[in-house]
Automatic annotation (TrEMBL), chain A:
Keywords: ATP-binding, Cell membrane, Membrane, Nucleotide-binding, Transport. This is ATP-binding cassette domain-containing protein. It is found in: Cell membrane. Residues 17-259 form the ABC transporter domain. It is a peripheral membrane protein. It comes from Acetobacter estunensis. PANTHER family: AMINO ACID IMPORT ATP-BINDING PROTEIN, L-CYSTINE IMPORT ATP-BINDING PROTEIN TCYN.
From TrEMBL, chain B:
The lineage of its organism: Bacteria, Pseudomonadati, Pseudomonadota, Alphaproteobacteria, Acetobacterales. One of its GO terms (cellular component) is ATP-binding cassette (ABC) transporter complex. Part of the binding-protein-dependent transport system for glutamine; probably responsible for the translocation of the substrate across the membrane. Belongs to the binding-protein-dependent transport system permease family. HisMQ subfamily. NCBIfam families: HEQRo_perm_3TM (TIGR01726). The chain crosses the membrane at residues 317-341, 353-376, 483-502. GO terms for biological process: amino acid transport. It comes from Acetobacter estunensis. This is ABC transporter permease subunit. InterPro entries: AA_ABC_transptr_permease_3TM, ArtM/GltK/GlnP/TcyL/YhdX-like, Iontro_rcpt_C, MetI-like, MetI-like_sf, Solute-binding_3/MltF_N.
């Protein structure tokens, strides 16, 4: 965990995200029950599990789109500890600092339909970080080139295919220079051929050393691309492991049942 | 002339209520609402009258609509001279005249107010400045209705709350029609809805005798006096000064000469003043009026007259557009604040916004405008007619725009707010850059339609003395007795104003439909 004290040599792994004992209930329904996860810099971690297992909620708790009832989230040097009670404006200020380290990609893209692709990418750096427009635009065009959308910079989201929209959404999140990227079922709304474009962008980011956490149903991608797979069920993490090992030899019967049904 | 007491009552009540509230809120050092001026200190003598549809009392000169004219106007000019003060006419709607007196918009009202016991309960009068009688007016070709007795069995028109109405009310053989506007009444006589009119001498002369289609018949009926009205119990010193001036004007023949110029000297005036002389003054104002309003012959002359209306209608249109546009800007801005307060504000703010919207939508716009213009001065807030009109319309439409925005905000997907939050925008930034612009796009077509409604509703501000299109119509049509031609022109002006916005609304709707179809195809 970053800032945990003992100075390590440079080649040693560095913890970039640490979630400890996250619990969350909607009304009386406990969606997350004491979930903890640590992610090292440069890792690609896939979270899998049946529908309603709490994996999306867990992901959304990491950047406080969903506010956990209890638990601590630490990303880079910023940390928020929750122990019940109301969400105060001081908490919101902490969340603001924490979100600066995190980019997020949604299943339904959520591009801003009234702005061009380029404007979508430039908006947040401009209004949140107040970076000079010329600098922002150069960076934004670079990011669009990276996701293969330089030609679509001045088009509106509604005129793009789903795959193009999702790639634009990734560029938009990257523009804030996050330490961690979160993906909430990024390809579930796409047909497989188009989904591949998106997955390819994620693989490329992985090669560059981006830390990524992906909630996904795509087990093939999870196995092939991930460093680790997290299996969740019933609001808990059941098993964390090496992709091949987990897929070939799941330890827990629930994991076995899920993988058996899915593959 | 006209129903003074009853129709002013509602306004007066609003005013009194606020005055009471103001008195309660008053700080000890600030004295209760004072009359405008002690006469000695002020140099401008402000007097109120309804200058629309009010020939020959005080009215816009038909040959030059920017100039005021009328025998009462001339009398007030003379009184101003004699008091050493500059006389200044203040336009006000008839129903607002007495409340305006109580609100100190002016110091006195001169508007053909009959000195009846009922009126004396509501205001203090000067000595009479004019005496006359009721006269019968018929269509020129009509015979047999040439005395008060012979009106029996017929439909007779008059203006509400006149001596004529009270007299005929006691005769069960006459069907009486009471009017608010003289010009409507004479239009009905022309259209044969009425058999005859019994009305105050000056009106009979200028609306009846001046028109080739009508004539005055039979002997005078009854006797009536006009007085200048002052707020009850206030301004006694000024009232005495005015009385003295009037007395002097009678004594030196000035009043006689003024009335003679208007062809309005009456046997009643002669009997009252004892002045049976012939002043040797030609009825120049009367002749000027006849010449200016003479029915035009042939389409060429008629067209020429209509063309001469264009600058006035243009001015009215500019005023209508200005009031509407300013009000819309206010409505669009305030509406957004209300909608955001309701949706995103703390509970008590949201409740306050809801309360406002319900109040505004649940009360008539007319009352709101009157309240702002006549009621608020009771709290020390005096607004010009333009500002009051803009605020009245703007505050009203803001409530409707708030509802539009609410629909618009609801139509913006929740994921938009989440995406903005995930990009580390604050709540305010997310609203400003992401949510509100999208809501706005949904709302624009509806808003454009609302603006067209606002253009039309802006006609209501004519009651607080703004001369916009509707008021221009009333003024022109009642001066020239031409409701048809001027009506078409003014209607056309409204259409021309609204048309660009109708097209804009269509365009916006079409664009929205296209972008929705496009985004729909990929989702």
């Amino acid at each position: 965990m970053a800032g945990s004290g003992n100075p390590e040599p440079a080649f040693c792994v560095e913890t970039v995200l640490c979630a400890e004992s996250i619990s969350k209930s909607f009304d009386s329904n406990k969606v997350l029950d004491d979930v903890s996860l640590t992610v090292e810099r440069g890792e690609l971690v896939s979270i899998i599990g049946p529908s309603g297992c709490g994996k999306s909620t867990f992901l959304r708790c990491l950047n406080f789109l969903e506010i956990p009832d209890e638990g601590t989230v630490t990303i880079a040097d910023d940390s928020i500890r929750r122990a019940g009670g109301p969400w105060k404006s001081s908490d919101e200020a902490l969340a603001h600092r924490l979100r600066a380290h995190v980019g997020m990609v949604f299943q339904s893209f959520n591009l801003f339909p009234h702005r061009t692709v380029l404007d979508n990418v430039m908006l947040a750096p401009r209004v949140v970080k107040h970076v000079a427009p010329a600098v922002i635009e150069a960076e934004a065009r670079e990011l669009l080139a990276k996701v293969g959308l330089e030609a679509a910079a001045l088009r509106y989201p509604a005129t793009l295919s789903g795959g193009q929209q999702q790639r634009a959404a990734i560029a938009r999140a990257l523009a804030m220079r996050p330490d961690v990227m979160l993906y909430d079922e990024p390809t579930s709304a796409l047909d497989p051929r188009v989904a591949e474009e998106v997955l390819e962008v994620m693989r490329a980011l992985d090669r560059e050393g981006m830390t990524q956490i992906v909630v996904t149903h795509d087990l093939r991608f999870a196995r092939a691309a991930s460093d680790r797979i997290v299996f969740m069920d019933g609001g808990q993490i059941i098993e964390i492991g090496d992709p091949d090992e987990m897929c070939d030899n799941p330890r827990d019967p629930r994991t076995r049942r899920f993988l058996g049904a899915s593959v | 002339m006209k129903a003074l007491v009853l129709r002013a009552l509602a306004l007066a009540m609003v005013g009194l209520f606020l005055q009471g509230a103001a008195a309660l809120a008053q700080e000890p050092e600030s004295p209760p609402v004072q009359p405008v001026a002690s006469p000695a200190s002020a140099t401008v003598l402000k007097w109120g009258a309804d200058g629309t549809s009010n020939v020959p009392y005080t009215f816009h000169d038909p040959s030059d609509e920017n100039r005021m004219s009328g025998f009462e106007y001339d009398i007030m000019e003379e009184i101003g001279r004699r008091l050493g003060r500059e006389s200044q006419f203040v336009q006000n709607d008839w129903d607002g005249l007495i409340p305006g007196l109580q609100r100190n918009f002016y110091e006195m009202v001169i508007c053909g107010i009959e000195m009846t016991p009922e009126h004396m309960d509501a205001v203090d009068f000067s000595q009479p400045y004019y005496m006359t009688s009721e006269r019968i007016v018929v269509r020129r070709d009509q015979a047999g209705l040439d005395s008060y007795e012979r009106l029996g069995g017929h439909v007779i028109g008059t203006v509400k709350d006149t001596l004529a109405e009270r007299m005929m009310g006691e005769r069960h053989d006459i069907t009486v029609r009471g009017y608010d506007e003289e010009s409507n009444m004479f239009a009905d006589l022309r259209n044969k809805r009425l058999d005859a009119i019994l009305i105050d001498g000056p009106i009979a002369l200028f609306y009846g005798e001046a028109d080739p289609d009508f004539r005055i018949v039979g002997p005078p009926v009854g006797h009536l006096s006009y007085g200048i009205a002052f707020a009850k119990g206030a301004n006694i010193e000024l009232r005495h000064q005015v009385d003295a001036a009037l007395k002097a004007m009678v004594a030196d023949g000035t009043l006689h000469r003024i009335l003679a110029r208007w062809n309005l000297w009456t046997p009643e005036m002669a009997a009252w003043t004892g002045d049976y002389s012939e002043p040797g003054v030609a009825p120049t104002e009367w002749q000027r009026y006849i010449a200016a309003t003479m029915p035009t012959q042939g389409w060429r002359a008629r067209l020429k007259r209509y063309v001469s209306f264009l600058p006035l209608i243009g001015k009215g249109a500019v005023m209508t557009l200005a009031v509407s546009a300013c009000a819309m800007v206010l409505a669009v801005g305030l509406g957004l604040v209300l909608a955001l307060a309701r949706r995103y504000g703390p509970t008590w703010v949201a409740m306050l916004a809801t309360f406002y919207i319900e109040i505004v939508r649940g009360t008539p716009l007319l009352i709101q405008i009157l309240f702002i213009f006549y009621g608020l001065p009771g709290l020390g807030i005096r607004l010009s007619p333009f500002v009051a009109g803009v605020i009245g319309l703007g505050l009203n439409y803001a409530a409707y725009e708030a509802e539009n925005y609410r629909a618009g905000l609801q139509s913006v997907a929740r994921g938009q707010m989440e995406a903005a939050t995930a990009l580390n925008m604050t709540h305010t930034q997310a609203l400003r850059y992401v949510v509100v612009p999208q809501a706005f796009r949904v709302v624009v077509p509806v808003m454009t339609n609302d603006f067209i409604s606002l253009l039309k509703d802006s006609s209501l501000v004519s009651i607080i003395t703004l001369t916009e299109l509707s008021q221009t119509y009333v003024r022109l049509s009642s001066t020239y007795f031409d409701y048809f031609g001027t009506g078409l022109m003014v209607g056309g002006a409204y259409l021309l104003l609204g048309l660009p916005f109708v097209r804009l609304a269509r365009m916006a709707e079409r664009r929205l439909a296209v972008s929705e179809r496009r985004s729909g195809a990929h989702h």
